Amino acid sequence: MTSPSELIGKPLPDSGFEVRECPEKLFEYNRFLYEFVGKHWEWTDKLSWSEQQWQEYAESENLRTWVLYKSGSPAGYFELQKKPESIVELAYFGLAKPFIGQGLGGGFLSKAIEEAWYWGAKKVQVNTCSLDHPSALANYKARGFKLEHTVEKSAHS
After folding, report:
1. Sheet with strand 123-126: strands edge to edge
2. Structural domain of 68
3. Which of 27, 28, 30, 133 has its CA 20 to 30 A from that of 49?
């Protein structure tokens, strides 16, 4: 996405949901959220990280974290990572399993994209794969993302 005007926003439901940024950087909370949300989608690349690796990643100045809460309980999260040339990547985005299928994905993704633009992005990007939720790519496209690059891996890759 190369312009805020490309966002096709969708609101979150007004039924007890709230999105808040985590201004205090606590790598343990990022690790918890990664495991809590990612375990259903085979997010495994960071599971073997040391505390130092987690701290360097989650507490860096170029990473910001938001959590979706339902009545005070975490329901999902996203991380935005600022890259060179003011590209902001939606590094992680997901809902906890009990909150999937409640119509939250579009509104929560809209909030993530809005926050990326507020952070001064010149371009917002996201990467997805076949291990993500089956509706992930459709949600990204419905919010205005355009497909930029596709890689297909064989069973031997």
Report:
1. 17-21, 63-70, 73-83, 87-95, 123-126
2. 4-142
3. 133
- The pLDDT of residue 32 is 96
Question: Residue 47 domain-assigned?
Answer: yes
Cβ neighbours around 89 below 10 Å, total = 19
Model pLDDT, residue 89: 94
Whether 149 is covered by a domain: the verdict is no
pLDDT mean by block of 10 residues, the chain; 157 residues? 92 88 96 93 89 97 96 94 95 92 90 95 81 62 73 53
Which residues touch 150 (CB under 8 Å, ≥6 apart)?
A: none
Tell me the CATH number at 115: 3.40.630.30
Give the whole-angstrom CA distance, residue 79 versus residue 139.
17
The answer to whether residue 45 sits within a structural domain is: yes
Tokens of 44: 């495994």
